[in-house]
Amino acid sequence: MITEKISKTNGHKLSIDEIGDDHLFSGLDTPMKASAFEMSDTEKKERISILFSEIMDVLGLDLTDDSLQGTPDRVAKMYIEEIFSGLDPKNKPKVALFDNKYQYNQMLVEKNITFYSNCEHHFVPIIGKAHIAYKSSGKVIGLSKLNRIVQYYAKRPQVQERLTNQIANELKTVLETEDVAVIIDAKHLCVSSRGIQDDTSTTVTTYYGGEFNNASKILELQNYINN
Ligand SMILES: [Zn+2]
């Protein structure tokens, strides 16, 4: 959709490089290949370690140096077990629903959920805060689960728009309601530490579903978040 608009306005067709550098695309699903989980985690770590040591070698680093020797294994372990663990559905948080015994049927806001993700175009960090709100459909989930859902989708190579939508979509599914809102305010290191080198800008993305898609609700929500 976005490309069509852009190519219509200035007749310019975007290259793969421009698409990545301007972070233009964002389907809901993380683009995964069909065979993504044919290899075991152990095999993946072994493979990544070999490939990463090649990158280091090409850069001219001395892999026999005590300080560098363990790096390929450490990076492989970090990719699979930590920063990209959210690619694997087996790591998805299991969410139990409880009945809303308190009959609390106003909005619930969980704000300032810190997350670390990585930009899928440059593989450098995205550091941000997520704010989540929902209105119970009669069911509630533990507050820590909101945090875990954010962390799960953050631990993937990401674009911020998709991260926002994936969190919103998961919340709608587990909470059985359309009344969810997700606001993400994040700093992209690919913008601050390289490229344009803008150290002060942050990017805000939002999803307002159901009852939240309403000017007065949005204002009310922004009040909670900013205070
Ligand atoms: Zn980037």
TrEMBL record:
Residues 52-217 form the GTP cyclohydrolase I domain. The keyword Metal-binding applies. Keywords: GTP-binding, Hydrolase, Metal-binding, Nucleotide-binding, One-carbon metabolism, Zinc. It is an enzyme of class 3 (hydrolase). Gene3D superfamilies: 1.10.286.10, 3.30.1130.10. GO terms for biological process: one-carbon metabolic process; tetrahydrobiopterin biosynthetic process; tetrahydrofolate biosynthetic process. Zn(2+) binds at residues 119, 122, 190. One of its GO terms (cellular component) is cytoplasm. One of its GO terms (molecular function) is GTP binding. InterPro entries: GTP-CH-I_C/QueF, GTP-CH-I_N, GTP_CycHdrlase_I, GTP_CycHdrlase_I_CS, GTP_CycHdrlase_I_dom. Its EC number is 3.5.4.16. Pathway: Cofactor biosynthesis; 7,8-dihydroneopterin triphosphate biosynthesis; 7,8-dihydroneopterin triphosphate from GTP: step 1/1. Homopolymer. Belongs to the GTP cyclohydrolase I family. PANTHER family: GTP CYCLOHYDROLASE 1 (PTHR11109:SF7), GTP CYCLOHYDROLASE I (PTHR11109). This is GTP cyclohydrolase 1. The lineage of its organism: Bacteria, Pseudomonadati, Bacteroidota, Flavobacteriia, Flavobacteriales.
